[in-house]
Specification:
It contains 9 helices and 5 strands. By secondary structure, the protein is an alpha+beta fold. The protein folds into 3 domains: 83 residues, Ubiquitin-like (UB roll) (Roll); 90 residues, Orthogonal Bundle (Recoverin, domain 1); 35 residues, no CATH class. Strands 2-1-5-3-4 form a 5-stranded mixed sheet. The radius of gyration is 24 Å and the shape is elongated.
């Protein structure tokens, strides 16, 4: 069966099977959005008929949930109430901490052009990703950035120039804006990306039937007896469980 999911940046066509669990689907969608599944909310349908798929249903298959193919799933980032302390951006030496440097360096690579240069257009797309609006290349924010940090005047920012910008911002009046940037790019205050957070979903893989049934001979024999029984409805339900 094919299920269309509305994802960040557009739609994605997902190919799943009737015995695919909601947990498996949730993990695949989370990968596309660079999130851990705990930060993902899936909604089935649209408008007044939309239904949020709950964590307690993670062990259910697509068929058990009533999905037959072609349904629309809307995926969005879920705000989780968690108390995570701020990790420092600047170390005792006055430089970016290794974790902060890694994140800001990844952003540099993310927005470079095809030639590997971070241009004013790169900066415009970065601002769009962080703030939602796409400024012109001659925007005052971009002009100020390049005037202050393009030290060789070549019209591009080198990696160290970009990191110097973030080092300066992280220990000055713009530190709160840096934290807002981190949130926009799915990075927690402890500098851990949401895709790296160990998941704490209600149904772990070890709790799904497909995991524990083959590992318990008694469960396995019982399931096989149901498949071999004369009641076709029971056999079909047992097969879906597998």
């Amino acid at each position: 069966m094919r299920t269309r999911a509305g994802l960040k940046g557009g739609d994605a066509l997902l190919l799943v099977f009737s015995n695919t669990s909601l947990w498996d689907l949730r993990k695949e969608v989370a990968k596309v959005l660079a999130l851990a599944p705990r930060y993902l909310q899936l909604t089935l349908g649209t408008g007044n008929s939309a239904t949020v798929l709950r964590d307690v249903d993670n062990g259910k298959t697509m068929k058990a949930l009533g999905l037959t193919g072609g349904e629309t799933l809307t995926a969005q980032k879920l705000s989780v109430d968690e108390h995570v302390p701020n990790a420092p951006l600047i170390g005792p030496d006055g430089e970016l901490t290794p974790a902060a440097r890694r994140i800001f360096s990844e952003w540099y690579d993310m927005f470079c052009d095809s030639a590997g240069a971070f241009t004013k257009e790169s900066a415009a797309h970065f601002i769009q990703a962080a703030c939602g609006d796409l400024p012109a290349a001659n925007d005052s924010r971009i002009a100020g950035l390049f005037q202050a940090y393009d030290t060789d005047g070549d019209g591009t920012l080198q990696r160290e120039e970009w990191l110097t910008f973030y080092r300066t911002s992280s220990r000055g009046e713009k530190a709160s804006t840096v934290r807002e940037n981190l949130t926009a790019f799915n990075v927690r205050p402890d500098l851990k990306k949401l895709s790296e957070v160990e998941d704490e979903a209600t149904a772990s893989p070890e709790e799904l039937p497909r995991y524990f049934i083959p590992r318990d001979q008694q469960h396995f024999d019982l399931l096989m007896s149901l498949l071999d029984g004369g009641d076709s409805s029971v056999a079909e339900a047992a097969w879906e469980l597998i």
